[in-house]
Amino acid sequence: MSSSANLTRSAALASITTALFLAGLKFWATWRTGSTAMLGSLADTSLDLIASIATLIGVSVAAQPPDEKHRFGHGKAESLAAMFQVILIALSAAAIAFRAITHLVEGRQTASADAGIAVSAIAIVATLALLTWQRYVIRKTGSVAIGADHVHYQSDLLLNLAVIAALVLDQYFNLTGADPLFGLAIAGWLLWGAWRAAGEAVDHLMDREWPEEERLRLVEIAAQFPELASLHDLRTRTSGTHDFVQFHVDMPGDMTVAESHEIIERVEEELIRHFPKLELLIHIDPEGHVDEPDNPLAETDEFDKLEKD
What we know:
Elements: H1 3-33, H2 36-62, H3 76-106, H4 114-141, H5 144-172, H6 178-205, H7 212-222, E1 232-239, E2 242-251, H8 257-274, E3 278-286, H9 302-308
Parallel strand pairs: 2-3
Antiparallel strand pairs: 1-2
């Protein structure tokens, strides 16, 4: 298993361990306090646990090497795991919102605040430790599944602070509507986090092009080779922790296969040095060749775009 796969797996296992620990604490605190906000926090943590298990499965599948049926690898398993998380987050938010509205109408007050405040403080410390490790793993691997998990746990920090605020206002200032109102706010925050996490996962599943600055960076590196002055038909995409790039270049018609191959080898080495997770496919056209006019990608010369910018 590669170092990237080991890192993503360790981050997923850390998420599961943290979620198990916090779910036990919050279950006890919900029983002691009867707080809607704390129940929302418990529901979120329980779904964190399920989502983290899905993430572990996703990153484990994504780490598998290409096989006869999946020649581009299994990277999109990470995006599927991220989408599963999004569905769970949305369902959780809906359930929390329903219970919060019910308590708001009934005017119910929480039974006790001390236990909920203490548990939320512990949860904040544990979550900060997990987020620190996740940020390191995301920086090293670019994992979309760990990224979705990270977004969810980021929301946990504000969620736990909101629980503390709700319990203090409800118990010590007798604002009986504070707890369900904070519960509604938590539900809205979860939905926003789900929307953000879904965006990147869908981009990966739909093979969205790289951001323009990344595409231009690749072209700038390629521009160091005068033989690639006609680079065109550039396609880029990301799947899991792997990047895929392909483009066409024109070579003199009288150049031998061995000569053109040597040039392309040097180009590949340089690009992979700058993009370590890159899988590259370069197609050689004879100089003067014109691509079919019905191919819109062929109309864009990447070096012309670079000069304009």
